[in-house]
């Protein structure tokens, strides 16, 4: 099951857990109020999983690919890792399904504090368009993930500040309505 917590302010290795002491856990309900959707699926059978098929149909996820993030598998690995960890947003939802390995998605809460979400095999996350976030591998240095999109894939990340985009404004309205 996914685990999330508020991050400490340490500047040590981004791949470390960065838990506050004492730990301040974040529930799935708290993530939901930020627009983050979590699902648990059967990664061993992703090619034939009827649950994944139904999610793709219901959410209109018509495009999919698989990416492996590891120094031996990803061209320009060091540059990509730095880019993924830059705080940014997208104009569309970001959907990731972990098939192997593990990593962290960090998202900002309504007060602009970082929440770290630990993702491992079988975890699927949807980050809403307009949420500031970033990704990093954990200390295992490996993840294989499915990327899902509605329509053609759009890879553009807009580094913070990006508050003038309609997606960000819509997300901020969503947060205000949730309050």
Structural description of this entry:
- It contains 4 helices and 11 strands, in the order E-E-H-E-H-E-H-E-E-E-E-E-E-E-H.
- The strands form 2 sheets. Strands 1, 2, 3, 4, 6, 7, 8, 9 and 10 form a 9-stranded antiparallel sheet that branches.
- The chain has a single domain, classed as Jelly Rolls (Sandwich).
- It has 179 residues and is an alpha+beta fold.
- It starts with a strand and ends with a helix.
- Strand 6 and strand 7 form a beta hairpin.
- The chain is globular.
- InterPro entries: ARD (IPR004313), ARD_euk (IPR027496), RmlC-like_jellyroll (IPR014710), RmlC_Cupin_sf (IPR011051).
- Its EC number is 1.13.11.54.
- One of its GO terms (cellular component) is nucleus.
- Keywords: Amino-acid biosynthesis, Cytoplasm, Dioxygenase, Iron, Metal-binding, Methionine biosynthesis, Nickel, Nucleus, Oxidoreductase.
- Strand content bin: 25-35%
Major beta-sheet overview: 9 strands, antiparallel
Low-confidence stretches: none
Helical amount among residues, as a percent range? 10-25%
* Total strand segments: 11
CATH class: Mainly Beta
Structural class: alpha+beta
**Which architecture does the CATH hierarchy give at level 2?**
Sandwich
Provide the residue-averaged pLDDT: 97
Number of domains: 1
CATH level-4 homologous superfamily = Jelly Rolls
Work out the radius of gyration: 16 Å
Oligomer: single chain
Tertiary shape: globular
CATH topology-level name: Jelly Rolls
Total helices: the number is: 4
Order of helices and strands: EEHEHEHEEEEEEEH
- N-to-C span: 26 Å
Subcellular location: Cell membrane; Nucleus
Protein name: acireductone dioxygenase (Fe(2+)-requiring)
Organism: Eulacestoma nigropectus (wattled ploughbill)
Region (Disordered): 1-21
